[in-house]
Amino acid sequence: AGMALLDALGAIEEGEALLRLVHAEALAERGFRAEASASLSHAARRLRERAATVGEPSWRASFLSAVPENEKTLALERRLCE
User: Fold this and answer.
1) CA gap 60, 57 in Å, rounded
2) Which letter does DSSP use for residue 60 in this model?
3) pLDDT average, residue stretch 24-51
């Protein structure tokens, strides 16, 4: 239901990354590897798009690596999409 709402809205200010991560993890847990990989790829792309709007390079890096759900999304993308 959360992903349906996110899809309808296109983006949300708070919780988008966590929602996308949980959705991808649920797909992977249920054995839907291709769907989980696609979901993670999309989630990682959205994170990179959002990071690109951060002007300060150190803040941009922190956004991608210090926010737990962002770091986990990128790590899972690397692992599942190999």
Assistant:
1) 5
2) H
3) 92
Q: E strands, 1-82, where? A: none
Amino acid at 26: A
Contact residues for 21 (Cβ-Cβ < 8 A; gap 6+): 43, 69, 72, 73, 76
C-alpha count within 13 angstroms, C-beta hemisphere, residue 75: 9
Higher pLDDT, 65 or 7: 65
Cβ of 46: how many Cβ atoms within 10 Å?
16
Pull the structure tokens for residue 19: 């929602």
**Cβ atoms 62, 21 nearer than 8 A:** no
**Is pLDDT above 80 for 10?**
no
Give me the amino acid identity at 64.
Answer: L
- Measuring CA to CA, which residue among 46, 80, 51, 45 is closest to residue 65? 51
Report the alpha-carbon distance of residue 35 to residue 63 in Å, rounded.
25
Confidence at residue 82, expressed as pLDDT on a 0 to 100 scale: 64
